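Re-run requested by the PI after the first attempt was lost when the workstation crashed. Everything re-entered from the original request form. Ligand of interest: NAP.
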Amino acid sequence: MAEVLKGNVVAAQIKEKMAKDIEELAKLGKVPTLGIVRLGDNPDDISYERSIIKNCDKIGIEAKVFEQDVNMTTEELLSLMGELNEDNSISGVLLFRPLPKHIDEAKVRESLVPSKDVDGMNPVTLAKIFEGDLSGFAPCTPKAAMEILLYNNIELEGKNVVVVNRSMVLGKPLTMMLLNENATVTICHSRTKNLPEITKNADVVVTALGRAKFFDEKYFNENSICIDVGVSLDEEGKLSGDIDYPVVSELVSKITPVPGGVGSVTTSILLSHVVEACKKM
Ligand code: NAP
């Protein structure tokens, strides 16, 4: 039976540090404030927004929601981003993506100043990560996966790590963060041949497909360390990771659960970025 790498202990450590920082900021009359920009009423966005607001309330971060018409134009959204850039009461901005098809997402991503880019969406913020400079705000989900590995003292130097995802929000920035820890990283995707062979020979496998229970025992060995980033609904409508947890957790050495793994660290990372942004204002 695998050791379960739970997210709540990692999140608790991040929150503990954040609480101290928020106390210090209060002495200076500063309240870290997150601006949330949401276009339309996508249920996934609304549910994520609720959870963020709940977490903000618990720790003493203010959340301001800027709910917008789903039909707003790129120019209107750029204008709002410009206002938020200038607004001294907003420490950081989270924009729910993907944006509707008619919006020029690239332009919008570029419009947010890096100092408020708490979810690492501006190409300038990402470019820093690709240069090995981790002083900016990394995208929250890959950073959450890294925090779980680091919290659990999982040796990465010289280890073979496979990342199954090549998106700009996940696989690519995560690969850079892993390289920074001197891991040897392989990126896999939908055109990869012999995926089970590649993952089975890795020390650490990070899965982020978004297909419930896709990875069964043939993808791993008894020493595998599995970090499951995928979140989707299984055939019974239950929240599931990419890994067939009941089967695979019997085989491998360490595994993150879903729910309760990477996802439970992601929001804490986001909020810690808001606090850091506020400290620098
Ligand atoms: P995405 O852009 O759709 O990326 C999926 C990746 O999986 C792509 O690189 C795709 O390859 C690859 N893939 C698809 N089918 C494959 C197959 N059969 N074999 C190998 N690779 C395959 O999605 P995303 O936005 O990066 O998100 C991925 C997952 O992470 C989703 O489940 C999402 O819910 C989850 N997520 C979790 C959190 C969290 O906090 N835990 C946050 C954000 C997202 P191609 O590039 O070739 O298409």
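Saved to the shared folder this time. The chain has a mean pLDDT of 97.
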